[in-house]
Design goal:
By secondary structure, the protein is of the alpha+beta class. The protein contains 3 helices and 10 strands; from the N terminus they run βββαβββββββαα. Strand 7 and strand 8 form a beta hairpin. 31% of the residues are buried. The structure holds zinc ion (ZN) (2 copies). The site of one zinc ion has 9 residues, from loops.
Length: 154
């Protein structure tokens, strides 16, 4: 995986590479993610913005949030596939939609969050931590990933 993970939008106008691997992967079952994806949950691979290498023109759609900080979604202007999110407009940290990777199976979720609104018929694997709302990053993230995140100052 030295060359990183590849992905792209549905129409092929935008492609990207992630290098190195994401720090951590969320499977979020909250009602906002359900509505925004039109599905049961979102899969977000958390990675430094500097490690997302896009090719092709993208555009950003800004969504309001409960916290008042904007949620910027980067999309392909042609097919409107959502490629990644910047929650809170931090600039340095992106949440890449795992389903847009060429091989999403290589990036399984490290945690399930907001399971309080998980759809009843979605069964979670026993080995993966799951939380009704959120979790303690310091307890779950690998040390190397925490170090990367600390380096971003977010
Ligand atoms: Zn596209
Ligand atoms: Zn969510």
């Amino acid at each position: 995986m030295a060359r990183g993970l590849k992905g792209g939008c549905f129409c092929g106008a935008v492609s990207y590479r992630l290098t190195p691997r994401p720090m951590f992967v969320h499977c979020c079952h909250c009602t906002d993610c359900q509505r925004q994806t039109g599905s049961a949950f979102v899969l977000n691979a958390i990675i430094e913005a500097s490690h997302v290498l896009p090719r092709g023109k993208t555009h950003v759609v800004t969504l309001p949030t409960d916290s008042g900080r904007p949620h910027d979604v980067t999309r392909c202007p042609g097919c409107e596939t959502a490629l990644w999110s910047d929650y809170g407009r931090r600039g340095s940290l992106l949440f890449v939609r795992v389903g847009t990777l060429d091989k999403p199976a290589l990036v399984p979720p490290d945690v399930h969050i907001f399971t309080r609104s998980k759809l009843r018929w979605v069964a979670l694997p026993k080995g993966t931590p799951a939380f009704k709302v959120y979790y303690d990053m310091k307890k779950l993230w690998p040390a190397a990933s925490l170090k990367r995140r600390t380096a971003l100052g977010v």
